[in-house]
Specification:
- This protein has 90 residues and is an all-alpha fold.
- It has one domain.
- Helices cover 90% and strands 0% of the residues.
- The protein is built from 4 helices and no strands.
- The longest helix has 30 residues.
- It is extended, with a radius of gyration of 19 Å.
- The termini are far apart.
């Protein structure tokens, strides 16, 4: 009984997260006005694939963000420091 509840909870969580990612990623695609119709079709295919495989895609994307942050750490830190100082000046 408990394993069935856990299975249903996992499935519900998967679909809630998939819907959430699909909705957010669709907003990004719709907001891009420079895409051609061919690029939009290709993007929709990628969107569906990414939504189905979000348990794999999201951690990989997070690793890419971490790698980018490590590579450009000094630039990011200097931008954060300058923005904080501007906020304190106001």
């Amino acid at each position: 009984m408990m394993s069935i509840i856990l299975l249903y909870a996992t499935i519900i969580f998967y679909f809630i997260m998939a819907f959430s990612f699909f909705q957010k990623w669709l907003d990004f695609f719709i907001a891009d006005a420079e895409m051609s119709s061919e690029e939009r079709v290709f993007s929709m295919i990628i969107l569906v694939i990414a939504t189905v495989f979000w348990p794999v895609i999201v951690p990989l994307a997070y690793l890419e963000v971490l790698k980018f942050h490590q590579k450009h750490k000094e630039v990011i830190d200097s931008l954060l420091i300058s923005s904080r100082s501007r906020l304190q000046d106001k």
